[in-house]
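Posting for a labmate who doesn't have an account.
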Amino acid sequence: MRPIAASLALAAALMLALPGQSRAASYVAQDIWYSTLYGGAIGGVGGLGVMLLKDEPLEHSDYVVRGVGIGILAGMVYGIYSYAATSRTAAVNEGGAVAAFDADGEARFRMPLVRPYLAKAPGGQEVQGVGLHMNLIHGRF
């Protein structure tokens, strides 16, 4: 148990020693990273709480590890989902494309969500196929 505690303390000290400012133009990766870290921390606290409710808490220390693992995965999924939701709203407002170019030459890159569509026969109501749709390039000139 001591090597695990020492490793966690070393990892926490290294995270505090690293610079906290992101050099990226976009804060997407930073937001997903923070969601993942917070999810792991919340999962660890939840696992610790469940461990302490047991009659022999030290025999159930694996609950903390499982809580951290589940929290990391849940935080990462939440971060990606929240980015996709905001990206979808912005992409719909800007043409819904992966790459959008303005008349002044400014380029914006997004990852819009894929939309389903139905292919109908010309002039008829009969559905000929089902597919997925996502615009790749949108421009205003």
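Reply:
Got it, the structure tokens are right above this. The CA atoms of residues 45 and 64 lie 7 Å apart.
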